[in-house]
Amino acid sequence: MNISKIDLNLLIYLDVLLREKNVTRAANQLNITQPAMSNGLKRLRTLFKDPILVRTSDGMVPTERARALAPAIRKILLELEEALQGEEEFNEKSSQRVFRIMASDYAASTLLPSLLRKINKLAPSVTLDIMTPSDVNFHDVEAGKIDMAINRFDELPQSFHQKTLWRDSFSCLLGADNPVVTKFNLNSFLTSKHVWVSKTGFGVGVGMDPKDVQKLGWVDEALARLGKKRDIKVFTRNYHVAMQLAFEDDLIATLPTKAALLHKNDSLYTIVKPPFEIPDIELKMIWSPLLHHDASHIWFRQLVSEAAAEN
User: Fold this and answer.
1) Domains parsed from the chain with CATH numbers
2) What is the residue-wise DSSP string for 40-91?
3) Coil, helix or strand at residue 281
4) Given a cut of 80, is residue 154 above it in pLDDT?
5) N or C: which end of the chain has fewer CB within 10 A?
């Protein structure tokens, strides 16, 4: 295969087709017509002497050859886009840039207030657009559509840049009138009702099964190592809902300490140390290699890091 005869657009078509696995959706993604994308797929099949996508009862499925090509094509396109980006100076005082961030409500409520204070002081016309983990996916971050994602992540693509903003322990948040406050130990913890809260990574949440300890996360895995389990009454993906339920319904919310400390001056709540060891968590910020050398993004990453250091 002579590389000088390859149309670069075909590699872009291939990249999107393998992600979307649908000609119409791929065409919409690239803002071209469906016939143009179909023609592109035809040319790709000729170029690689492979069907690329095969129609099955489950829809269009990539061939073995296509699956092998996918990571290499993605890497090539990312490196090319990064190389073609021009250097620009960034003036925060006059900038009207909108920074789009995916953040869990844990990250948003603990980190963003100090970040916003810094932005108001240094860049008064800069705007933040905060999205939830359910609003975006890895491809949005990889393509630079989202400036940054801030959350706890179990797994990340190797192409992403990342930085740990902080490590956080766990605390138990209870209503001040909860009867177990006066004698809080492992036994009273286990005999109480609990509200489970977590949202890591990206994507729409799925229903939880109280019996599936491995999917319940840090708190329940730590209990399982002791041969114990807690009685979960409510599952939620929202930390503020969990904190409210802890007060109203005598439930125990075991959550990252920085989230619990949002109520440290509230007489309606009590914050206590869990009666067993739970490993710390890491809050990370991640971003696309396409934005790594962008002047405005470098400035923003530094500001986020400084805000995190103050928490």
Assistant:
1) 3-84 (1.10.10.10), 98-167+282-309 (3.40.190.10), 170-279 (3.40.190.10)
2) HHHHHHHHHTS-SEEEETTEEEE-HHHHHHHHHHHHHHHHHHHHHPPP----
3) strand
4) no
5) N
Whether pTM > 0.90 for this model: the answer is no
Question: b/e per residue, 163-173, with b = 16+ CB within 10 A?
Answer: eebbebebbbb
CA distances from 68 to 18, 52, 72, 90 (A): 11, 11, 8, 40
Give the number of other CB atoms < 10 A from CB of residue 289: 16
Instruction: Supply the pLDDT for residue 306.
Output: 95
Spatial contact of 264 and 110, defined as CB atoms under 8 Å apart: no
Q: How far is C-alpha 72 from the chain's CA centre?
A: 24
Cβ neighbors of 156 (< 8 A, separation 6 or more) are 162, 286
CA distance 69 to 137: 22
State the first-to-last Cα distance of the chain, in angstroms, to the nearest integer: 55
- Find the angle CA(158)-CA(160)-CA(161) to the nearest 5 degrees: 120
CA distances from 124 to 114, 121, 300, 301 (A): 14, 6, 13, 17
Residue with tokens 């971003």: 287
In tens, the pLDDT along 87-104 reads 567 899 999 999 999 998
Dist CA 311 CA 299 (whole Å): 19
CA torsion angle 196 200 204 210 (round to 10): -30
C-alpha angle with apex 213: 209 to 215, nearest 5 degrees? 70
